[in-house]
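Dear support,

I submitted the protein below through the web form. The confirmation email said the job was done, but the results page showed an empty box. After a refresh the structure appeared. I'm attaching both so you can tell me whether what I see now is the final result or a partial one.
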Amino acid sequence: MGLNVIMMGPPGAGKGTQAGRFATDRGLPKISTGDILREAIKEKNPTALDAKARMDRGELVDDDTMIAIVADRLARPDVRDGFVLDGFPRTVAQAQALDELVKRLEVGPLIVVDVAVPEHELVRRLAGRRICSVCGTNAGPSDVDACAACGGELVQRIDDDQGVVLERLRVYQQSTKPVLEYYSERPTFRVVNGAQAPERVAVELNAMIDDAAAARR
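What the results page shows now:
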């Protein structure tokens, strides 16, 4: 039975960083819909280009597109021992489709972790966040101008403009919060305080996932 984790949380909560760290520590693939879309955009895929335009406006990509992207990724052999999903599902329809997908693939139950951070802290984080223009690494607020991973230039994301940030948080509250309600009654659902230092979040997150994995047996 694989260790299948969904990392939830609003924009700026640090779920991507925590998902990447956990995936590396456990030897699991991190599946980020953002990364998949960026690859498709480089290939000039029309669907991906339309999806990027929506994300740049702070909107969510339509359910059918996201479900198809994730279904294709989960069909690959490297997810046999589990996976860490970052950025999916973002609507109840996506969550329901994912339930059907994992049932069909027989990969085992889902463990869902919500990285919770107060809204005022999210706005502060996002307004100062920068990413690498070359590899897409999230550098967070920093005085450094070059990416630590590849040396590329650090720039502000288009969707981290303050006006777009507020719209992204509004969309999250409207569309993604119901997903947490969808999962909240499951014995494998956990909430971690994401307002702590990243190292502390990682420690608590690991313990919660191990606890949830035991609860599903």
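Response: this is the final, complete result; the empty box was a page-load delay. The CA atoms of residues 92 and 182 lie 7 Å apart.
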